[in-house]
Input
Amino acid sequence: MPLRRAVVFGAALLFVLSLAMYPRLGAELFPETDAGTFTINFRAAPGTRLEVTTALSREMEDVIRRVIPAGELNMVISNIGLAPSLSAIYSPNSSQETGFVQVELKAGHSRPGPTPIQ
Output
């Protein structure tokens, strides 16, 4: 019986100590990083012509250039459509109605909170 009490007391003590350590724990497993790049993948309606997909991509680029200050924007690259072949395995594009826009920001860019796009 005394051993059982010692085990229960020890477990309770460890539990209380773990609660005391809680405020010192980090909130995330990985530290917050900012690579200064992001990619927007998009897909138009199936069967959309390549010209329409190109126009959609240009509209997205215009929004990006409006939202991100010119002094912080390094590069915007659009990749639209893909001919069906073996190379399609290595691209998020699967046909003429898909594409992606990659954005690279300059080093030392500011990082404001979320900005609603209007």
User: Anything to note?
Assistant: DSSP finds two helices and three strands in the chain. The two ends are 71 Å apart (CA to CA). The chain has a mean pLDDT of 83.
